[in-house]
Design brief:
Blueprint: E1 8-12, H1 17-28, E2 32-37, E3 56-59, H2 65-75, E4 79-82, H3 89-94, H4 96-117, E5 122-128, H5 151-170, E6 173-179, E7 182-183, H6 192-204, E8 211-213, E9 219-220, E10 223-224, H7 225-235, E11 244-246, E12 252-253, H8 254-264, E13 273-275, H9 293-299, H10 307-322
Parallel strand pairs: 1-2, 1-4, 2-3, 4-5, 5-6, 6-11, 7-10, 8-13
Antiparallel strand pairs: 9-12
The structure holds NADP nicotinamide-adenine-dinucleotide phosphate and ligand G4F.
Length: about 325
């Protein structure tokens, strides 16, 4: 890409799993990347440490619209990816109002700042398969009605519809990717996949003995984060803004994930896993399974990393991390 054609992208949530992979992708494509980080007493830039000097960081918080007005006015972005959120479902039960403010109303703050300063930019909203909740049809597609089962999912539904509303009201290029669960070695440690792979590595290395989990029967459509950020980018390169379901079209239980992860290092999971009701949720999402055919047909998007390879990659990365080798490596 020539200097004149170089696009600028703003990523909220750049310190998170997806933000870090998206930054990798956009830099590879020649973008100038501006990452929004919130002020913390101790900087939290582990996932983007390898991008130091390559991305510009700007302070902003989803609770504060003026920070986005200022960032957009200064950088005049071509593309805005709103990935920031309070993204952990159990925390949303404990902090429903904060989750509503950040994960729900935060989207309106970013959209409103965009409308006032750079209405011709293109906007991506990180919607979630959690919105399907108590599913009314399987597999879930773009037209499937939402039945959210947590304050997080309710807030995401608000974010989804406010994005659609700005598209329809102001003719803005604003769209949502309804992404099913996606994981990687950079996944937060409290999410079930990473909690499992971290524990497997520790047990294998003699650093821990047991792993306490909640509902082993919940089923998720798990893909790899590196594949999913490619779908986000593709969604902003179309002639018209549209929403897309992004997933693998396969579903697996937590139990299957556990079996594979322990089996990969030659351990019998039944000797280490304890089911602990403390990790049950007030309302569970039992089954998620995507129909990603619209993304495949329109965007030409297909996931490259399958379930088994994802599990093994995550276990291997945690073993490497704990044995002192490369702490974080590219997932795709
Ligand atoms: P993540 O790792 O939890 O990252 C969340 C990001 O949001 C972090 O950078 C965090 O900053 C930032 N953030 C939180 N509160 C903020 C605030 N008040 N102001 C500004 N930034 C704030 O999440 P992820 O897995 O990368 O997911 C990215 C997005 O996709 C999220 O919106 C998530 O809800 C959504 N999503 C994820 C999945 C999935 O399976 N991963 C599926 C569907 C949708 P700190 O580092 O400072 O905490
Ligand atoms: O890994 P989880 O915490 O992810 P969850 O709730 O599906 O949410 C993730 O995916 C969403 C997309 O659908 C995102 F929008 C959201 O931001 C987040 O990234 O839990 C997965 C399943 C649940 O059914 C949970 O009950 O695993 C079950 N589980 C069983 N034991 C556990 C545990 N989950 C966690 N976190 N910890 C456990 O010990």
């Amino acid at each position: 890409m020539t200097q004149a054609a170089r696009k600028t992208a703003v990523i909220t949530g750049i310190t998170g799993q997806d933000g870090s992979y998206l930054a990798d992708l956009l830099l590879e494509q020649g973008y100038k990347v501006v990452g929004v980080v919130r002020r913390l007493s101790t900087p939290n830039t582990e996932r983007i440490a390898h991008l130091e000097g390559k991305v510009e960081l700007a302070q902003g918080d989803l609770l504060d619209q003026s920070s986005f007005t200022e960032i957009f006015a200064k950088h005049k972005p071509d593309e805005i990816y709103n990935l920031a959120a309070q993204s952990f479902v159990p925390t949303s039960f404990g902090q429903p109002l904060l989750t509503g403010e950040v994960t729900g109303l935060g989207v309106a703050r970013v959209l409103e700042a965009m409308r006032l300063t750079c209405p011709k930019a293109r906007f991506y909203q990180a919607s979630s398969s959690e919105m399907y909740g108590k599913v009314v049809e399987t597999p879930q597609r773009e037209t499937t009605r939402f039945h959210p089962r947590s304050p997080y999912a309710v807030a995401k539904a608000y974010g989804h519809y406010i994005t659609l509303n700005y598209r329809e009201s102001y003719d803005m290029y604003a769209c949502s990717g309804i992404l099913f669960n996606h994981e990687s070695p950079r996944r937060g440690i409290e999410f079930v996949t990473r909690k499992i792979t971290d524990a497997v590595a520790k047990i294998k290395l003699g650093l821990a003995k047991e792993l306490r989990l909640g509902n082993l029967e919940a089923r998720r459509d798990w893909g790899c984060a590196g594949d999913y950020v490619r779908a986000m980018w593709l969604m902003l390169q179309q002639d018209e803004a549209e929403d897309f379901v992004v997933g693998t079209g396969e579903t697996h239980s937590v139990r299957e994930f556990v079996e594979l992860a322990f089996g990969h290092v030659g351990l019998d999971w039944k000797r280490h896993v304890i089911v602990d009701p403390a990790f049950y949720r007030p309302a569970e999402v039992d089954l998620l399974l995507s129909d990603p055919s619209h993304a495949k047909n329109k965007l030409g998007w297909v996931p490259e990393v399958g379930f088994e390879n994802l599990v093994k990659m995550m276990v291997d990365a945690d073993v490497e991390r704990l044995t002192g080798k490369s702490p974080i490596r590219r997932a795709a």
